[in-house]
Specification:
276 residues, Rossmann fold, elongated, 7-stranded mixed β-sheet, 9 strands, alpha/beta, two-stranded antiparallel sheet, 11 helices
Length: 276
């Protein structure tokens, strides 16, 4: 079987399974199975596939047809131009979160705290982009902390990053000039409506607070003031319907300069404010 024939079969299988972009997914999986760059898939199209490559590819296509995320199958995801190792232990980094990173990088900072760090994609990216900055990432999941630490090594910032198991601010010492978070913000009643890739394969504790989706913001805004220097900034990612509610929490916590930033589709995506 040639690579082109295997690719065609895979696309048909994924299309029948209802995956959103079967051609893209099939190409990424074939590239991983063949251990080549995705840009080279077209070049090997006429070639006979090695039997081991074919079997590996078909196995991954079968998993993808059952809605296992591509990132879990290939073990990594690109975020802000860098590679991050990911697994079922952490939330898959998403392009929308790059809005938060870009906003955080708009002003200089020296000490950053990332609450609910997951894969570490936010903290690691911020440290990689801001030379000399140091940071702490916290997460309730020990597995997530280990994965984040591995990503810090992968991206060369391990000397400036520290990860610790914590429930938001518990055990966190010192003050920071930047606090960031992409917390669980999906309401429990909304979980059933999520795509199966997300609902069935990503950690529920990283998706929902088990309540109305706003519990994390209550905890973060209540504690952020004690951990920010005067003039320090707080930035959180939100769900598209939560802008007004979260901005109201910032206001009640006496933050100044409160803004709601949209994502590329015009939906509310980030709330930010400054400690008075």
């Amino acid at each position: 079987m040639t690579a082109a024939e295997a690719l065609s079969r895979a696309i048909a299988t994924l299309r029948a399974a209802g995956t959103p972009d079967p051609a893209r997914d099939a190409r990424r999986l074939l590239a991983h199975a063949a251990r080549i760059d995705a840009a080279r898939v077209t070049l090997i199209a006429p070639d006979e596939l090695d039997e081991a490559v074919r079997l590996r590819f078909e196995e991954m296509v079968g998993h993808r047809a059952r809605h296992v995320p591509v990132s879990h199958l290939v073990g990594e995801r690109e975020f802000y131009g860098r590679r991050f190792k990911v697994s079922a232990n952490v939330l898959d980094p998403r392009p929308e979160t790059e809005i938060l990173v870009a906003a955080a990088l708009a002003l200089p900072f020296e000490q950053v705290l990332d609450l609910g760090t997951g894969s570490g994609c936010i903290l690691v990216t911020l440290l990689a982009e801001m030379a000399g900055a140091r940071g702490i990432g916290t997460d309730l999941s020990e597995a997530a902390c280990l994965e984040a630490a591995a990503n810090a090594v992968l991206n060369g910032v391990q000397a400036r990053a520290h990860f610790q198991r914590a429930d938001w601010f518990d055990g966190v010492e010192g003050q920071f000039d930047l606090i960031v978070s992409n917390p669980p913000y999906i309401a429990l009643e909304e979980m059933a409506g999520l795509a199966p890739d997300v609902r069935d394969h990503e950690p529920h504790e990283a998706l929902t607070d088990g309540g109305d989706g706003l519990g994390a913001y209550r905890a973060i805004t209540a504690g952020a003031g004690r951990h920010l220097v005067p003039g320090g900034r707080l930035l959180v990612e939100i769900g598209p319907s939560q802008g007004a509610a979260v901005a109201g929490m910032f206001d009640a916590a006496r933050f100044a300069g409160i803004r709601i930033l949209p994502d590329l589709d015009g939906r509310d995506r980030v709330v930010l404010g400054t400690r008075r």
